[in-house]
Design goal:
Strand content: 15-25%
Largest sheet: 6 strands, mixed
Mean pLDDT: 82
Low-confidence stretches: 1-32
Distance between the termini: 51 Å
Length: 492
Protein backbone atom coordinates (compact mmCIF):
# COMPACT_ATOMS: atom_id res chain seq x y z
CA UNK A 1 0.00 0.00 0.00
CA UNK A 2 2.82 2.40 0.86
CA UNK A 3 4.34 1.69 -2.53
CA UNK A 4 1.10 3.12 -3.93
CA UNK A 5 1.48 6.15 -1.68
CA UNK A 6 4.98 6.72 -3.09
CA UNK A 7 3.44 6.72 -6.55
CA UNK A 8 0.97 9.39 -5.39
CA UNK A 9 3.80 11.62 -4.20
CA UNK A 10 5.49 11.25 -7.58
CA UNK A 11 2.19 11.95 -9.35
CA UNK A 12 1.48 15.02 -7.21
CA UNK A 13 4.96 16.40 -7.83
CA UNK A 14 4.31 16.41 -11.57
CA UNK A 15 1.52 18.94 -11.04
CA UNK A 16 -1.73 19.46 -12.88
CA UNK A 17 -0.36 19.58 -16.40
CA UNK A 18 2.84 18.95 -18.27
CA UNK A 19 2.67 22.35 -19.91
CA UNK A 20 3.73 24.03 -16.66
CA UNK A 21 7.12 22.33 -16.48
CA UNK A 22 10.16 24.21 -17.73
CA UNK A 23 10.78 22.01 -20.77
CA UNK A 24 7.14 22.38 -21.82
CA UNK A 25 7.07 26.12 -21.28
CA UNK A 26 6.32 26.97 -24.87
CA UNK A 27 9.83 28.27 -25.56
CA UNK A 28 11.01 26.58 -28.77
CA UNK A 29 13.75 24.05 -28.18
CA UNK A 30 16.23 24.66 -31.02
CA UNK A 31 16.54 21.84 -33.46
CA UNK A 32 19.56 20.61 -35.41
CA UNK A 33 21.17 23.25 -37.61
CA UNK A 34 19.71 26.19 -35.71
CA UNK A 35 22.95 27.99 -34.83
CA UNK A 36 22.79 31.70 -34.07
CA UNK A 37 25.37 34.47 -33.78
CA UNK A 38 25.32 38.10 -32.64
CA UNK A 39 27.33 40.93 -31.15
CA UNK A 40 26.83 40.59 -27.38
CA UNK A 41 28.64 43.73 -26.25
CA UNK A 42 27.35 47.24 -26.89
CA UNK A 43 27.25 48.96 -30.24
CA UNK A 44 29.84 51.59 -31.17
CA UNK A 45 33.60 51.88 -30.83
CA UNK A 46 35.12 50.17 -27.82
CA UNK A 47 38.31 48.44 -26.75
CA UNK A 48 36.94 44.90 -26.94
CA UNK A 49 33.77 43.60 -28.59
CA UNK A 50 32.30 40.16 -27.80
CA UNK A 51 30.65 38.13 -30.56
CA UNK A 52 29.07 34.84 -29.59
CA UNK A 53 27.49 31.82 -31.27
CA UNK A 54 25.18 29.11 -29.94
CA UNK A 55 24.14 25.88 -31.58
CA UNK A 56 25.55 22.69 -33.12
CA UNK A 57 27.49 24.55 -35.84
CA UNK A 58 29.49 26.59 -33.29
CA UNK A 59 32.37 24.11 -33.50
CA UNK A 60 32.49 24.44 -37.29
CA UNK A 61 32.24 28.24 -37.08
CA UNK A 62 35.18 28.41 -34.69
CA UNK A 63 37.30 26.19 -36.90
CA UNK A 64 36.29 28.08 -40.06
CA UNK A 65 37.37 31.48 -38.74
CA UNK A 66 40.57 30.28 -37.02
CA UNK A 67 41.64 27.93 -39.87
CA UNK A 68 42.69 25.24 -37.44
CA UNK A 69 41.55 21.74 -36.64
CA UNK A 70 42.31 22.05 -32.95
CA UNK A 71 39.68 23.72 -30.79
CA UNK A 72 40.82 25.73 -27.76
CA UNK A 73 40.61 23.90 -24.41
CA UNK A 74 37.07 24.20 -23.04
CA UNK A 75 36.43 27.47 -21.20
CA UNK A 76 39.99 28.72 -21.77
CA UNK A 77 40.95 31.82 -23.77
CA UNK A 78 43.37 31.40 -26.69
CA UNK A 79 44.84 34.03 -29.00
CA UNK A 80 44.05 33.19 -32.63
CA UNK A 81 44.17 34.90 -36.02
CA UNK A 82 40.65 35.25 -37.44
CA UNK A 83 40.28 35.02 -41.21
CA UNK A 84 37.42 35.16 -43.69
CA UNK A 85 36.47 31.51 -44.41
CA UNK A 86 36.01 32.21 -48.15
CA UNK A 87 38.78 34.62 -49.11
CA UNK A 88 41.24 33.79 -46.35
CA UNK A 89 41.70 37.53 -45.69
CA UNK A 90 42.85 38.25 -42.09
CA UNK A 91 40.16 39.99 -40.04
CA UNK A 92 41.66 40.43 -36.58
CA UNK A 93 43.85 38.84 -33.95
CA UNK A 94 41.43 37.91 -31.17
CA UNK A 95 40.82 35.83 -28.07
CA UNK A 96 38.52 32.88 -28.75
CA UNK A 97 36.72 30.67 -26.22
CA UNK A 98 34.98 27.32 -26.66
CA UNK A 99 32.07 26.27 -24.42
CA UNK A 100 30.90 22.75 -25.31
CA UNK A 101 27.31 22.02 -24.28
CA UNK A 102 25.67 21.42 -21.95
CA UNK A 103 28.13 23.36 -19.77
CA UNK A 104 27.43 26.72 -21.37
CA UNK A 105 25.07 29.65 -20.88
CA UNK A 106 22.50 28.30 -23.34
CA UNK A 107 23.16 24.60 -22.74
CA UNK A 108 24.32 24.26 -26.37
CA UNK A 109 27.77 24.35 -27.97
CA UNK A 110 28.87 28.00 -27.80
CA UNK A 111 31.85 30.00 -29.05
CA UNK A 112 32.97 33.52 -28.26
CA UNK A 113 35.21 35.85 -30.24
CA UNK A 114 36.73 38.73 -28.25
CA UNK A 115 37.78 41.07 -31.04
CA UNK A 116 38.96 44.67 -31.18
CA UNK A 117 35.90 46.91 -30.98
CA UNK A 118 36.27 48.98 -34.14
CA UNK A 119 33.16 49.00 -36.38
CA UNK A 120 35.09 47.59 -39.38
CA UNK A 121 36.47 44.67 -37.35
CA UNK A 122 33.10 43.81 -35.81
CA UNK A 123 31.33 44.08 -39.16
CA UNK A 124 33.95 41.90 -40.86
CA UNK A 125 33.68 39.12 -38.26
CA UNK A 126 29.87 39.18 -38.33
CA UNK A 127 29.83 38.98 -42.11
CA UNK A 128 32.31 36.09 -41.99
CA UNK A 129 30.09 34.19 -39.54
CA UNK A 130 27.13 34.81 -41.83
CA UNK A 131 28.97 32.95 -44.59
CA UNK A 132 29.43 29.82 -42.47
CA UNK A 133 26.80 27.21 -43.44
CA UNK A 134 24.15 26.66 -40.77
CA UNK A 135 24.55 30.02 -39.03
CA UNK A 136 22.01 32.84 -38.93
CA UNK A 137 21.77 36.15 -37.00
CA UNK A 138 20.11 35.83 -33.58
CA UNK A 139 16.80 37.42 -32.69
CA UNK A 140 16.50 39.73 -29.66
CA UNK A 141 16.80 37.68 -26.46
CA UNK A 142 17.30 34.41 -28.33
CA UNK A 143 20.41 33.34 -26.40
CA UNK A 144 18.58 33.69 -23.08
CA UNK A 145 15.47 32.04 -24.50
CA UNK A 146 17.56 29.02 -25.44
CA UNK A 147 19.02 28.96 -21.93
CA UNK A 148 15.45 28.91 -20.59
CA UNK A 149 14.38 26.21 -23.06
CA UNK A 150 17.28 23.98 -22.01
CA UNK A 151 16.58 24.42 -18.30
CA UNK A 152 19.62 26.60 -17.56
CA UNK A 153 17.45 29.43 -16.21
CA UNK A 154 13.98 29.54 -14.69
CA UNK A 155 11.57 32.25 -15.82
CA UNK A 156 12.08 34.28 -12.64
CA UNK A 157 15.85 34.08 -13.20
CA UNK A 158 15.35 35.28 -16.78
CA UNK A 159 13.37 38.24 -15.42
CA UNK A 160 16.19 38.92 -12.97
CA UNK A 161 18.66 38.98 -15.85
CA UNK A 162 16.46 41.47 -17.76
CA UNK A 163 16.28 43.68 -14.68
CA UNK A 164 20.04 43.45 -14.12
CA UNK A 165 20.73 44.61 -17.67
CA UNK A 166 18.33 47.54 -17.26
CA UNK A 167 19.30 48.39 -13.65
CA UNK A 168 20.14 52.07 -13.19
CA UNK A 169 20.46 52.31 -9.39
CA UNK A 170 22.25 50.33 -6.69
CA UNK A 171 18.96 49.11 -5.22
CA UNK A 172 17.77 47.83 -8.61
CA UNK A 173 21.10 46.07 -9.17
CA UNK A 174 20.96 44.32 -5.79
CA UNK A 175 17.38 43.18 -6.29
CA UNK A 176 17.99 41.97 -9.85
CA UNK A 177 21.08 40.03 -8.80
CA UNK A 178 19.16 38.29 -6.01
CA UNK A 179 16.47 37.26 -8.47
CA UNK A 180 19.03 36.13 -11.05
CA UNK A 181 20.69 34.03 -8.35
CA UNK A 182 17.39 32.18 -8.04
CA UNK A 183 16.17 33.36 -4.62
CA UNK A 184 12.58 33.92 -5.73
CA UNK A 185 12.55 30.66 -7.68
CA UNK A 186 13.97 28.77 -4.70
CA UNK A 187 11.28 30.24 -2.46
CA UNK A 188 8.55 29.19 -4.92
CA UNK A 189 9.99 25.68 -5.21
CA UNK A 190 9.86 25.39 -1.42
CA UNK A 191 6.19 26.37 -1.46
CA UNK A 192 5.55 23.92 -4.31
CA UNK A 193 7.18 21.12 -2.28
CA UNK A 194 4.82 21.85 0.60
CA UNK A 195 1.86 21.74 -1.79
CA UNK A 196 3.05 18.44 -3.24
CA UNK A 197 3.13 16.84 0.21
CA UNK A 198 -0.32 18.15 1.08
CA UNK A 199 -1.75 16.94 -2.24
CA UNK A 200 -0.16 13.52 -1.79
CA UNK A 201 -1.76 13.19 1.65
CA UNK A 202 -5.19 14.16 0.28
CA UNK A 203 -4.93 11.76 -2.66
CA UNK A 204 -3.78 8.99 -0.33
CA UNK A 205 -6.92 9.54 1.72
CA UNK A 206 -9.05 9.43 -1.45
CA UNK A 207 -7.47 6.21 -2.73
CA UNK A 208 -6.85 4.39 0.55
CA UNK A 209 -9.27 6.04 3.00
CA UNK A 210 -10.93 2.73 3.84
CA UNK A 211 -7.63 0.94 4.36
CA UNK A 212 -6.94 0.26 8.02
CA UNK A 213 -3.22 0.56 7.37
CA UNK A 214 -3.50 4.23 6.38
CA UNK A 215 -1.82 6.45 8.93
CA UNK A 216 -4.23 8.37 11.15
CA UNK A 217 -4.48 12.15 10.92
CA UNK A 218 -3.30 12.32 7.32
CA UNK A 219 -5.93 14.92 6.35
CA UNK A 220 -5.17 16.98 9.46
CA UNK A 221 -1.52 17.01 8.40
CA UNK A 222 -2.50 18.29 4.95
CA UNK A 223 -4.69 20.98 6.55
CA UNK A 224 -1.77 22.12 8.70
CA UNK A 225 0.57 22.33 5.70
CA UNK A 226 -2.00 24.35 3.73
CA UNK A 227 -2.56 26.76 6.64
CA UNK A 228 1.18 27.41 7.00
CA UNK A 229 1.56 27.96 3.27
CA UNK A 230 -1.42 30.35 3.17
CA UNK A 231 0.13 32.44 5.94
CA UNK A 232 3.46 32.59 4.08
CA UNK A 233 1.80 33.62 0.81
CA UNK A 234 -0.38 36.24 2.49
CA UNK A 235 2.67 37.75 4.21
CA UNK A 236 4.55 37.91 0.93
CA UNK A 237 1.63 39.47 -0.93
CA UNK A 238 1.26 42.21 1.67
CA UNK A 239 4.47 43.91 0.55
CA UNK A 240 2.33 46.71 -0.98
CA UNK A 241 3.89 46.42 -4.45
CA UNK A 242 7.32 47.33 -3.09
CA UNK A 243 9.14 45.14 -5.58
CA UNK A 244 7.35 46.73 -8.53
CA UNK A 245 8.18 50.19 -7.20
CA UNK A 246 11.82 49.15 -6.89
CA UNK A 247 11.84 47.97 -10.48
CA UNK A 248 9.96 50.90 -12.09
CA UNK A 249 10.56 53.69 -9.57
CA UNK A 250 8.71 55.19 -6.61
CA UNK A 251 6.49 58.20 -7.30
CA UNK A 252 7.95 61.18 -5.39
CA UNK A 253 5.93 64.40 -5.62
CA UNK A 254 7.36 67.81 -4.66
CA UNK A 255 4.62 70.15 -3.46
CA UNK A 256 4.19 73.38 -1.53
CA UNK A 257 2.94 76.97 -1.78
CA UNK A 258 4.23 79.15 -4.64
CA UNK A 259 7.80 80.46 -4.58
CA UNK A 260 9.20 78.25 -1.79
CA UNK A 261 11.86 76.59 -3.97
CA UNK A 262 10.12 73.47 -5.27
CA UNK A 263 11.67 73.72 -8.72
CA UNK A 264 15.07 74.48 -7.17
CA UNK A 265 14.77 71.29 -5.11
CA UNK A 266 13.84 69.26 -8.20
CA UNK A 267 16.89 70.65 -10.02
CA UNK A 268 19.11 69.90 -7.03
CA UNK A 269 17.92 66.30 -6.69
CA UNK A 270 18.04 65.60 -10.43
CA UNK A 271 21.45 67.29 -10.77
CA UNK A 272 20.40 69.24 -13.84
CA UNK A 273 18.21 72.27 -14.64
CA UNK A 274 14.98 70.51 -15.61
CA UNK A 275 12.62 73.10 -14.06
CA UNK A 276 12.47 76.84 -14.67
CA UNK A 277 13.38 78.80 -11.53
CA UNK A 278 11.99 82.32 -11.16
CA UNK A 279 11.15 84.70 -8.29
CA UNK A 280 7.75 85.19 -9.92
CA UNK A 281 5.07 83.05 -8.19
CA UNK A 282 3.21 80.54 -10.34
CA UNK A 283 6.05 79.81 -12.81
CA UNK A 284 5.36 76.07 -12.78
CA UNK A 285 1.88 75.45 -14.15
CA UNK A 286 2.02 71.81 -15.24
CA UNK A 287 3.38 68.61 -13.74
CA UNK A 288 7.00 68.07 -14.78
CA UNK A 289 8.31 64.52 -14.28
CA UNK A 290 11.86 63.20 -14.44
CA UNK A 291 13.29 59.77 -13.52
CA UNK A 292 16.11 60.13 -11.00
CA UNK A 293 18.40 58.08 -8.77
CA UNK A 294 17.60 59.17 -5.20
CA UNK A 295 20.07 57.80 -2.67
CA UNK A 296 20.45 54.60 -4.72
CA UNK A 297 16.72 54.06 -5.31
CA UNK A 298 14.81 54.70 -8.56
CA UNK A 299 12.20 57.45 -8.38
CA UNK A 300 9.93 59.41 -10.67
CA UNK A 301 10.28 62.96 -9.38
CA UNK A 302 7.35 65.31 -10.06
CA UNK A 303 7.54 69.11 -9.89
CA UNK A 304 4.07 70.56 -9.41
CA UNK A 305 2.36 73.93 -9.43
CA UNK A 306 2.27 75.93 -6.20
CA UNK A 307 -0.86 75.20 -4.20
CA UNK A 308 -2.99 78.34 -4.01
CA UNK A 309 -6.18 79.73 -5.49
CA UNK A 310 -5.24 80.06 -9.18
CA UNK A 311 -5.28 83.53 -10.70
CA UNK A 312 -6.32 82.28 -14.14
CA UNK A 313 -7.72 79.20 -15.86
CA UNK A 314 -4.23 77.87 -16.79
CA UNK A 315 -2.90 78.14 -13.24
CA UNK A 316 -6.13 76.70 -11.84
CA UNK A 317 -5.70 73.65 -14.08
CA UNK A 318 -2.07 73.34 -12.92
CA UNK A 319 -3.18 73.37 -9.27
CA UNK A 320 -5.86 70.77 -10.01
CA UNK A 321 -3.27 68.50 -11.61
CA UNK A 322 -0.91 69.03 -8.68
CA UNK A 323 -3.61 67.92 -6.20
CA UNK A 324 -4.40 64.92 -8.39
CA UNK A 325 -0.74 63.91 -8.50
CA UNK A 326 -0.49 64.21 -4.72
CA UNK A 327 -3.12 61.50 -4.36
CA UNK A 328 -0.99 59.14 -6.47
CA UNK A 329 2.30 59.79 -4.65
CA UNK A 330 4.26 57.14 -2.77
CA UNK A 331 6.32 59.85 -1.04
CA UNK A 332 5.45 63.53 -0.69
CA UNK A 333 8.19 66.13 -0.31
CA UNK A 334 6.35 69.06 1.24
CA UNK A 335 8.42 72.23 0.81
CA UNK A 336 8.07 75.44 2.81
CA UNK A 337 10.07 78.64 3.13
CA UNK A 338 11.93 78.30 6.44
CA UNK A 339 11.99 82.08 6.83
CA UNK A 340 8.24 82.49 6.32
CA UNK A 341 6.62 79.68 8.33
CA UNK A 342 4.08 81.90 10.06
CA UNK A 343 2.53 83.22 6.85
CA UNK A 344 -1.09 82.25 6.03
CA UNK A 345 0.08 80.36 2.91
CA UNK A 346 2.46 78.17 4.99
CA UNK A 347 -0.09 77.51 7.73
CA UNK A 348 -2.84 76.64 5.24
CA UNK A 349 -0.49 74.30 3.40
CA UNK A 350 0.52 72.49 6.60
CA UNK A 351 -3.12 72.06 7.54
CA UNK A 352 -4.05 70.72 4.13
CA UNK A 353 -1.16 68.33 3.45
CA UNK A 354 -0.42 67.02 6.93
CA UNK A 355 -4.07 66.72 7.95
CA UNK A 356 -5.59 65.19 4.84
CA UNK A 357 -2.84 63.42 2.91
CA UNK A 358 -1.20 61.80 5.95
CA UNK A 359 -4.24 59.59 6.50
CA UNK A 360 -4.75 57.27 3.54
CA UNK A 361 -4.19 57.39 -0.20
CA UNK A 362 -7.05 56.24 -2.48
CA UNK A 363 -5.28 52.91 -3.01
CA UNK A 364 -5.44 52.22 0.71
CA UNK A 365 -1.68 52.52 1.31
CA UNK A 366 -0.41 55.05 3.81
CA UNK A 367 1.48 57.83 2.08
CA UNK A 368 4.82 58.89 3.47
CA UNK A 369 5.52 62.59 3.89
CA UNK A 370 8.69 64.54 4.48
CA UNK A 371 8.68 68.23 5.36
CA UNK A 372 11.58 70.15 3.78
CA UNK A 373 12.25 73.66 5.10
CA UNK A 374 14.07 75.39 2.27
CA UNK A 375 15.92 78.72 2.25
CA UNK A 376 17.63 77.99 5.56
CA UNK A 377 20.35 80.43 4.45
CA UNK A 378 17.83 83.25 5.10
CA UNK A 379 17.37 82.34 8.77
CA UNK A 380 19.16 84.76 11.09
CA UNK A 381 19.79 82.12 13.76
CA UNK A 382 20.08 79.12 11.44
CA UNK A 383 16.98 77.42 12.82
CA UNK A 384 13.24 77.87 12.18
CA UNK A 385 10.74 79.29 14.60
CA UNK A 386 10.39 76.41 17.05
CA UNK A 387 7.38 78.03 18.68
CA UNK A 388 5.39 76.54 15.79
CA UNK A 389 4.15 72.98 16.14
CA UNK A 390 6.11 71.56 13.20
CA UNK A 391 6.11 67.92 12.07
CA UNK A 392 9.52 66.20 11.67
CA UNK A 393 11.46 68.20 9.11
CA UNK A 394 14.78 68.69 7.35
CA UNK A 395 16.45 72.07 6.95
CA UNK A 396 17.88 72.74 3.50
CA UNK A 397 19.30 75.52 1.39
CA UNK A 398 18.95 74.81 -2.31
CA UNK A 399 21.16 77.87 -2.90
CA UNK A 400 24.18 76.69 -0.88
CA UNK A 401 23.48 72.93 -0.79
CA UNK A 402 23.66 72.89 3.01
CA UNK A 403 21.49 70.10 4.41
CA UNK A 404 21.47 68.08 1.17
CA UNK A 405 23.40 65.14 2.66
CA UNK A 406 20.95 64.91 5.53
CA UNK A 407 18.01 65.07 3.14
CA UNK A 408 19.45 62.27 0.98
CA UNK A 409 19.94 60.05 4.03
CA UNK A 410 16.32 60.58 5.08
CA UNK A 411 15.19 59.89 1.51
CA UNK A 412 17.19 56.65 1.50
CA UNK A 413 15.32 55.45 4.60
CA UNK A 414 11.94 56.58 3.29
CA UNK A 415 12.45 54.95 -0.11
CA UNK A 416 13.70 51.76 1.52
CA UNK A 417 10.35 51.61 3.31
CA UNK A 418 8.46 52.32 0.08
CA UNK A 419 10.44 50.04 -2.25
CA UNK A 420 11.82 47.49 0.19
CA UNK A 421 15.46 46.90 1.06
CA UNK A 422 16.87 44.55 -1.61
CA UNK A 423 19.78 43.62 0.65
CA UNK A 424 17.70 41.97 3.36
CA UNK A 425 14.58 39.91 3.87
CA UNK A 426 12.67 37.70 1.46
CA UNK A 427 12.95 38.32 -2.30
CA UNK A 428 10.53 40.95 -3.56
CA UNK A 429 7.81 40.52 -6.18
CA UNK A 430 8.98 42.74 -9.02
CA UNK A 431 6.22 42.09 -11.58
CA UNK A 432 2.44 42.06 -11.66
CA UNK A 433 2.73 38.51 -13.05
CA UNK A 434 4.31 37.36 -9.78
CA UNK A 435 1.49 38.84 -7.73
CA UNK A 436 -1.15 37.39 -10.06
CA UNK A 437 0.07 33.81 -9.66
CA UNK A 438 0.72 34.07 -5.90
CA UNK A 439 -2.74 35.56 -5.40
CA UNK A 440 -4.21 32.79 -7.56
CA UNK A 441 -2.41 30.21 -5.45
CA UNK A 442 -3.69 31.81 -2.24
CA UNK A 443 -7.26 31.93 -3.61
CA UNK A 444 -7.05 28.24 -4.51
CA UNK A 445 -5.93 27.44 -0.96
CA UNK A 446 -9.00 29.32 0.24
CA UNK A 447 -11.16 27.09 -1.95
CA UNK A 448 -9.43 24.08 -0.44
CA UNK A 449 -10.43 25.16 3.06
CA UNK A 450 -14.08 25.69 1.99
CA UNK A 451 -14.39 22.46 -0.01
CA UNK A 452 -16.98 20.05 1.38
CA UNK A 453 -15.76 17.18 -0.78
CA UNK A 454 -12.25 15.70 -0.57
CA UNK A 455 -12.03 15.39 -4.35
CA UNK A 456 -12.78 19.10 -4.75
CA UNK A 457 -10.17 19.88 -2.10
CA UNK A 458 -7.58 17.93 -4.08
CA UNK A 459 -8.50 19.78 -7.25
CA UNK A 460 -8.04 23.13 -5.45
CA UNK A 461 -4.51 22.05 -4.47
CA UNK A 462 -3.77 21.14 -8.08
CA UNK A 463 -4.88 24.62 -9.18
CA UNK A 464 -2.64 26.19 -6.52
CA UNK A 465 0.22 23.99 -7.65
CA UNK A 466 -0.32 25.09 -11.24
CA UNK A 467 -0.03 28.77 -10.30
CA UNK A 468 3.33 28.21 -8.60
CA UNK A 469 4.59 26.19 -11.56
CA UNK A 470 3.52 28.91 -13.98
CA UNK A 471 5.34 31.54 -11.94
CA UNK A 472 8.73 29.92 -12.55
CA UNK A 473 8.09 28.36 -15.98
CA UNK A 474 5.53 30.58 -17.72
CA UNK A 475 2.93 27.84 -17.89
CA UNK A 476 3.38 27.20 -21.59
CA UNK A 477 1.91 30.58 -22.58
CA UNK A 478 3.88 31.75 -25.61
CA UNK A 479 2.50 35.30 -25.35
CA UNK A 480 3.87 35.70 -21.81
CA UNK A 481 7.28 34.43 -22.90
CA UNK A 482 7.33 36.79 -25.89
CA UNK A 483 6.63 39.78 -23.63
CA UNK A 484 9.45 38.84 -21.26
CA UNK A 485 12.09 38.05 -23.87
CA UNK A 486 11.38 41.09 -26.02
CA UNK A 487 13.05 43.23 -23.32
CA UNK A 488 16.42 41.71 -24.21
CA UNK A 489 18.79 43.18 -26.78
CA UNK A 490 20.14 41.14 -29.68
CA UNK A 491 23.10 39.08 -28.46
CA UNK A 492 21.72 38.28 -24.99
Amino acid sequence: MWRGFSTLVSRAARGPCRSCTRQGSGAPVPGPGATIFALSSGQGRCGIAVIRTSGPASRHALRSLTATRDLPPARSACLRLLSDPRSGEPLDRALVLWFPGPKSFTGEDCAEFHVHGGPAVVSGVLQALGRVPGLRPAEAGEFTRRAFAHGKLSLTEVEGLVDLIHAETEAQRRQALRQLDGELGHLCRGWAKTLTKALAHVEAYIDFGEDDNLEEGILERADSQVRELAVALDTHLRDARRGQRLRSGAHVVVTGPPNVGKSSLVNLLSRKPVSIVSPEPGTTRDVLEIPVDLAGFPALLSDTAGLREGEGPVEQEGVRRARERLEQADLILAVLDASDLASPASCNFLDMVFTRAIAQSPSGNSQRLLLVLNKSDLLPSGSPDLSLDLPPHQLLSCLTGEGLDGLLEILRKELAAVCGDPSTGLPLLTRARHQHHLQGCLDALGHYKQAKDVALAAEALRVAQGHLACLTSGGGTEKILDIIFQDFCVGK
